[in-house]
Amino acid sequence: MKKVLVIIPNLRCGGAEKMSLLYAKLLFKQGYVVRLVNLGERSGELSEYVPINIEYITLGATHVRSTIFKLYKMIRAWKPDFIFSSLKYTSVLILVLSLFCNICVILREPTLPSNKLFVTFKARIVDWFTRMLYKRAYKIIAQTDEMKQEIESYYKLPANRICVLNNPIDSDLLEEKTKDIDNPYGEYKGSEILLAVGNISYAKGYDILLEAFEQYDNVKSHLFIIGRCDGEYGKKIIQMVDSFKSKDRIHFLGFVNNPYPYMKFCTVYILSSRMEGLPNVLLEAMFFNKPIIASDCVPYVGKVLTDYSQSIVVKSDSVSDLLKGLYNVHNRKIKGYTACQNDYDLKYIFS
């Protein structure tokens, strides 16, 4: 059986980290020998999402770069057939190691290369190394056709090195996390519940969402936001809401380990992002047959919602368009569409 080493930087909640854990689970189910290596501390927000049947190793590092010698020794000893990474920093680290080890590196691109979320010196250094080293990857997984085209152009790579694989969702996990669960909205459960999930950052467009909600005159509606609130943007958002007349109907829940009951029982799910790779929370909301308002932050949004009748796609970065979506979404009917795929086959990539 072929062996796959899956590398994650830590168990801090993030879409790429969560997707890496799901890939590990799916590869194990499809007959691969999987070893999951966490470069950071053993505990974290995603601890309960670590697959129980997979060998799991933690290196306890505070910085990714400090693990390079430990990883080198592990690779030489275990001799994996493939090494998988879904985050830029760990991908660069593994590609550096590939200069000294004969390994097949498979990378999942977490977002469009054109999504310049950070402009720090460190980020520019990582981008330079990425451009130099990506040619060493055995295969690169793009989440959409548009992402594949950007990767091919940005990194000057041949098209046959890039595979398109839409994000799978773990339907078994979603059902398990919402089985026999009461409505989590408590005293508000008779109201119109609007929900957004994702760390509070500029890329997620929460300032646009909050401005639209402030102008939305349904006083029986409540907006719930699940996600870590860090940094200057988070402070700006909190200050913004303090001046709103609707502030008593806006609820910041912070990080929630199991957000799925909130998704299951919300009235409308909202994706207000300015930038995305492939928004997995959108697929999860579709799994629960939720009415959806989504920004056209990436072409994939319009494509995936084409056959999903209970949805409205609005212009990204537009308060007026999102406000219009809030007023219009309830005029649609659900077809009963389900977005999950249980038989996601990774063998054509890991071969």
What does this protein structure show overall?
With 351 residues, the chain is an alpha/beta fold. It folds into two domains: 3-165, 3-Layer(aba) Sandwich (Rossmann fold); 172-331, Glycogen Phosphorylase B (Rossmann fold, 3-Layer(aba) Sandwich), CATH 3.40.50.2000. Helix content is 34%, strand content 17%. The chain is built from twelve helices and 13 strands. The strands form two sheets. The protein has a seven-stranded parallel beta sheet, sandwiched between helices. The longest helix is centred in the N-terminal third of the chain and has 15 residues, at 15-29. The radius of gyration is 21 Å and the shape is globular. The N and C termini lie close together (11 Å). The model is unreliable at 333-343 (pLDDT under 50).
The span between the termini is: 11 Å
SSE-based structural type: alpha/beta
Q: SSE order in H/E notation? A: EHEEHEHEHEHEHEHEHEHEHEHEH
Q: How many strands, which pairing sense, and closed or not: the largest β-sheet?
A: 7 strands, parallel
Task: Note the beta-strand portion.
Answer: 15-25%
Tell me the Rg in angstroms: 21 Å
InterPro entries: Glyco_trans_1, Glyco_trans_4-like_N
GO molecular function: glycosyltransferase activity
Domain Glycosyl transferase family: 180-326
Organism: Jilunia laotingensis
